[in-house]
Amino acid sequence: MTYRLYYWTGIQGRGEFVRLALEDADADYVDVAREDGDDAIQPFLDGDRDGPRPFAPPFLVAGDRVVAQVANILHFLGPRLDLVPEGEAARLQALQLQLTIADLVTEIHDSHHPIASAAYYEDQQDAAKRRAADLRAHRLPKFLGYFEQIVARGDGHALGVHSYVDLSLFQILRGLDYAYPKAMATLSPRLPALRALDARVAGRPNIAAYLGSTRRLAFNAQGIFRHYPELDGDTGG
Question: Which of 20, 139, 190, 234 is most buried as measured by Cβ atoms within 10 A of its Cβ?
Fold first, then answer.
């Protein structure tokens, strides 16, 4: 099976959660827009291609299937790439955790665009400062504290063994380290299990090779994780 991943060029974005799974499993995949341009995405969004019509990328084409939404894509790929334990209960738990990660991703994005996604950051900067202060003081400790407990109880993994959830938690930590370095420096001493997971994932051979390749784009000011120094600070605000 050759998987075809569709996501915007120039940013890691939500597509990166899917890329990490494909790279970790050494799957055969094509990052379509990076080869053919962003215009390759639009026919699917317009409903001009066969299969379910996605609302937005990322989406994955696997044979005659079109699968959209990060958590749904990973739920589909998990058993096929050996990135989720066997059994319905484990797969539902993985999906639950991935959906919680999706909630956190939304809160991180909204910390720099709290009023309107289509508006410039500079036009909502005051609101962003208030939202980011709340993210640092309340939401990050709550979300990361929860995942710290999950990983600690799972012998260093979200599900007791390596899974796509571990890869997504790695991406969350790397993104937050870029966007909120001061806040993460304050929080990290309370997150030993997550920090150990981060190091373990980074050391996996296929992930290490990916991180050192040109396929791994750098974080930047157009993605989900954006570093604005005025939004960063310790977790007390």
Answer: 20
DSSP code per residue over 150-199: HHHHTTTSSSSS--HHHHHHHHHHHHHHHH-HHHHHHHGGG-HHHHHHHH
Residue ranges covered by each domain of the chain? 1-237
Bridge partners of 31, per DSSP, are 5
What is the side-by-side order of every strand in the sheet holding 59-62?
Answer: 29-31, 3-6, 59-62, 65-68
What is the rounded CA–CA span in Å between residue 141 and residue 52? Answer: 37
Give the pLDDT confidence of 50-73 residue by residue, as tens digits. Answer: 889 999 999 999 999 999 999 999
CB 25 within 8 A of CB 82: yes
pTM: 0.97
- Coil vs helix vs strand at 6: strand
As given in the structure block, the two tokens for residue 85 are: 């334990």
Taking the C-alpha atoms of residue 232 and residue 167, their distance in angstroms, rounded to an integer, is 25
Which fold, 1-237? Answer: Glutathione S-transferase Yfyf (Class Pi); Chain A, domain 2 (1.20.1050)
* Gap between the Cα atoms of 166 and 25, Å rounded: 13
